[in-house]
Amino acid sequence: MLEKYDYLGIINDRLNNILRLENGNAGLIEPIRYSVLGGGKRIRPLLSIASGRINAADFDAVLDIGCALELIHCYSLVHDDLPAMDNDDLRRGLATCHKKYDEATAILVGDALQSLAFEVLSAPTLNLPQESKLKIINLVSKASGISGMVGGQLIDLYSTGQELTLTILQNMHAQKTGALIRAAILSGYLCGSAFSLDKYNTLSQIADSLGLLFQIMDDILDVTQSSHTLGKTANKDIINDKATYVSLLGLEEARGIADELYREIITDLSRLKNSAMLQEIATIVYKRNH
Amino acid sequence: MLEKYDYLGIINDRLNNILRLENGNAGLIEPIRYSVLGGGKRIRPLLSIASGRINAADFDAVLDIGCALELIHCYSLVHDDLPAMDNDDLRRGLATCHKKYDEATAILVGDALQSLAFEVLSAPTLNLPQESKLKIINLVSKASGISGMVGGQLIDLYSTGQELTLTILQNMHAQKTGALIRAAILSGYLCGSAFSLDKYNTLSQIADSLGLLFQIMDDILDVTQSSHTLGKTANKDIINDKATYVSLLGLEEARGIADELYREIITDLSRLKNSAMLQEIATIVYKRNH
Q: Environment class of residue B159 by beta-carbon count within 10 Å: exposed (0-12), middle (13-18) or buried (19+)?
């Protein structure tokens, strides 16, 4: 998969470069590098790059936008793993940031990563029109905050152990993971020079479906794969008594919805030119085992 | 003081408006409002407004920039108060966010406030040229992150109980509080239409001195005022065994440096037209008792 679009090395190189040791306080850069460069599927940068292809975006620009989104994603993982939140010891097969260092460091690592993302998005060297940069910054800040990722995380925390309706579950995930996936796809598109509201809206809808597919697959993998394969604690949702698509619908119905979403996404994408890479990513999300 | 420039009500109204209840997840907005609207001197927005006057800046724009900086300041207070950090129960005379709610909420409140600051700075309705917006976003993100506020906080945490040189102490505060004060002053100036590199550099230097004065006065107040007057725990630095200007230099020498910094700031400002409000703020910083 994706061998035709082997961007993982390029993304990791760029992240490595953004997080150069000489770029500030060594005591902070080291745990930041540990938290960002220790692996990860880099789905968000891949999505930005793939979506950028649909709009002939400048590659360096779209790479930086994707990396900024990855920094936000990584900060959210570091904070989510904290004892006061999900209290997790294992992430990507390694000790979580607060386990490797300490809680205070993990809080500050997350905080600094969020600032850094906006520093990357507003950099004078980023090769994008000012209008596009500002649109992307506004999109990413909204996707990250109260009505996006952080808002979803709060719903998640306070719904643990409670019975959820499918609507609330869907709304929670649309915010918690969906918003940033949507921002990755839409900001990739915004890196191109053309703008069609029609294409933008189509991509927005595809992004919502892909975010949902991503989450349903996560829930399915949680109960069907081992901790070793996942690189994080398996059966975590059951242990934490969290409502998931699997706990609400059962494994078979969850799989059925995933099948349908995947077909829908591929059908919608096939109507957009140069969407082959985005189709491959959707396939990976659908067929992944971790 | 500042009665001629009574902006406190206007700043609080604007913050109140930015944090409207209908703007997202109620479970998150309420603790955010508690953490932001429960008081505070609003030094950063006042600085942006005052500095904007030097460059005939649009008032609504400079107000929003100042409020965005206040959101970042408030997020840093919420995170700094956490048990894993300074472990404080009292802030502005009220229970700290994690005491009033819980730790997870306090972490998310801080995270969401940072996103919201960048949402305000990148808002299409913000009446500034795109170039100015991007310059300000880049300035604020740098001032907040690894080499700014968060970097300084890490140095602070890991220097507790250790002997510090005056240089390290100064460097720590230049990052921890100085960077955001500098960003407030410089971004206020950037809201005006004219740009003189000379004035910008002068303001940058004044901002550094004012940040330092602010910190030295904080250290002096910590040992000379009651918890009641401060609205936060007094003698906190001694209790936490933290190096301060007072612990390193003694009260008298710390006062002497503050006197000299204040004189310098007023002399430098008196050379800039329309700097009366900035001079008044410097006087408040110098003469405040909490």
A: middle
> Is residue A120 within 8 Å of A68, Cβ to Cβ?
yes
- Measured between beta carbons, the chain A residues lying within 8 angstroms of B159 are none
Task: For strands A90-91 and A94-95, give the pairing.
Answer: antiparallel
Burial class (CB in 10 A: 0-12, 13-18, 19+), B223: middle
Under 8 Å CB-to-CB from A271, ≥6 apart: which residues? A202
- Single out the residue of B57, B33, B27, B29 nearest to residue B45, CA to CA: B57
| Type of residue at A61 | A
Smallest Cα–Cα separation from B126: which of B49, B53, B61? B61
| Per-residue model confidence as pLDDT tens digits over B198-234 | 999 999 999 999 999 999 999 999 888 776 766 666 6
- pTM, 2 dp: 0.94
Find chain A residues with C-beta within 8 A of B160's C-beta: none
pLDDT tens digits, B100-121: 999 999 999 999 999 999 999 9
CA distance B198 to B66: 23
- B150 Cα to chain A: minimum distance (Å): 6
- Candidates 3.30.870.10, 1.10.600.10, 3.40.50.300, 1.10.3470.10; CATH matching A3-287: 1.10.600.10
CB pairs under 8 A between A and B: 165
Domain boundaries, chain B: 3-287
Comparing CB atoms, the residue among B104, B115, B123 nearest residue A145 is B115
Rounded Cα distance, A184 and A172, in Å: 18
Please name the residues between 71 and 90 in chain B that touch chain A, using a CB distance below 8 Å.
Answer: 75-76, 79, 82, 84-85
Helix (H, G, I), strand (E, B) or coil at B199: helix
- Assign B95 to helix, strand or coil: strand
| Contacts A132 to B, Cβ<8 Å | none
- Give residues with Cβ within 8 angstroms of A48, minimum separation 6: A62, A63, A65, A66, A69, A184, A185, A187, A188, A191
Pairing of strands B94-95, B90-91: antiparallel
CA A287 vs CA A92, A213, A214, A222, A281: distances in Å: 19, 11, 10, 14, 10
Using alpha carbons, list the distances in angstroms from residue A86 to A70, A76, A96, A242, B104: 20, 11, 11, 11, 9
